[in-house]
Amino acid sequence: MSLTRHEIREKAFQALFALNANPEADENELYQQLLNPDETAEVEIPSYLSTLVTGVLEHQTELDEMIQPYLSSTWSLDRLAKTDLIILRIAFYELNYVDDVPSKVAVNEAIELAKAFSDDRSRKFVSGVLGKAVTNEA
């Protein structure tokens, strides 16, 4: 089974969301459930999936520190919807730690994740935060 990077990002979001709710979950089991819901046989886990999930988890504190300055002064990370925060963490991880993903792609993919897993307000919020971050980076 070959997944596109877009599909891998969706699976990474789902894995991170599940791990947020249950940090004790076994990552490998979780990947298998996401990639092979019929449990017909164990499937190979795309390396980029584990790169994203492990990277976001390992750098979560730094990612949150990178995100915070782009939130309005009245917002804190713990007030964000979990979906939005996880999407932003994935995007900031790709922007700062993955060399072969252009900023534009990381931003567009985050907006696509917001469209798929959140609502229109969240999509605009994610787009606004990442737009400020990328402009500031240039």
From TrEMBL:
Q: Which residues form a coiled coil?
A: none
Alphabetized InterPro entries for the sequence: NusB-like_sf, NusB_fam, NusB_RsmB_TIM44
Determine if Cell membrane is one of this entry's keywords: no
Annotated GO molecular function terms are: RNA binding
NusB/RsmB/TIM44 domain location is 7-133
Q: Does the keyword Protein biosynthesis apply?
A: no
User: What keyword terms does UniProt attach to this protein?
Assistant: RNA-binding, Transcription, Transcription antitermination, Transcription regulation
**Which superkingdom?**
Bacteria
Give the family per the record: Belongs to the NusB family.
Q: Which PANTHER family match?
A: ANTITERMINATION NUSB DOMAIN-CONTAINING PROTEIN, N UTILIZATION SUBSTANCE PROTEIN B-RELATED
Q: What role does it play?
A: Involved in transcription antitermination. Required for transcription of ribosomal RNA (rRNA) genes. Binds specifically to the boxA antiterminator sequence of the ribosomal RNA (rrn) operons.
Which protein, by its recorded name, is this?
Answer: Transcription antitermination protein NusB
Record organism: Lactiplantibacillus fabifermentans DSM 21115
* Name of the encoding gene: nusB
